[in-house]
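Hey, resending since the last one bounced:
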Amino acid sequence: MPLKQNLEQLWIVRCGAAVLLFGQVLLHLCQGKAYYRKILEHMVTAGPGSISPVLLVSGFAGMIFTIQTARELVQFGAVSAVGGAFALAFCRELAPILTASILAGQVGSAFAAELGAMRVTEQIDALYMLRTDPIDYLVLPRVIACCLMMPFMMIFAVMIGITGGVFAAWQFYQIVPEVFLESVRTFLAPSDLMIILLKGFIFGTLVAVNGCSWGLTTKGGAKEVGESATTAVVTTWVSIFMMDFVLTVLLSGQPNF
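The structure tokens again:
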């Protein structure tokens, strides 16, 4: 029982450290402190380096969602509404959540493992000896890179998801692409695209801050580095779903109970 309480307290403390790290990132960002070469390096990791799983998952998710939706709507003769249902659910919610979750697993865990290894091998202490702030050199470039690349990744995910939906609708239910795309265009407003970009920016911040925070607070050895990477992913997933709920309520209006 005491061990469980200690683990819970440690988890709460490290989540609090992530909040404090976010404040430090904002402060250093306002001061204009950043290593721009490191930003480009991490943009490659968060963008082209992660594009394959995002596109594959989005394409198959779009096909699966279309098949399940069309199967029900076709029975009621609502063929023209298949694309609209796809736009409302997949484009607004599912594509951003899937993209952020994939980057949390691939990029966020990598950040936590890299910084955790640097912490346990005292490389971060060496940065202090060289009068280099780890926030400026290690954290800020990763946060900026994720914030910049996540919205683009979500747009790509939506595009590939729509392509998969068009293919599934035509292949399995003979819904012509023109009908499907017109329904998507009718239901998907320009403001929805802005919301997707906003979610990308916020989710990118969560992925980078959580990954860096759990890496910087790692203590022990190789085992603890792996645990930090795993816990960083889980914490990021939870925070993404919580933030998505908050954004949905704020941007879509409070639901009537």
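Residues 1-8 have pLDDT under 50 and may be disordered.

Sorry for the duplicate.
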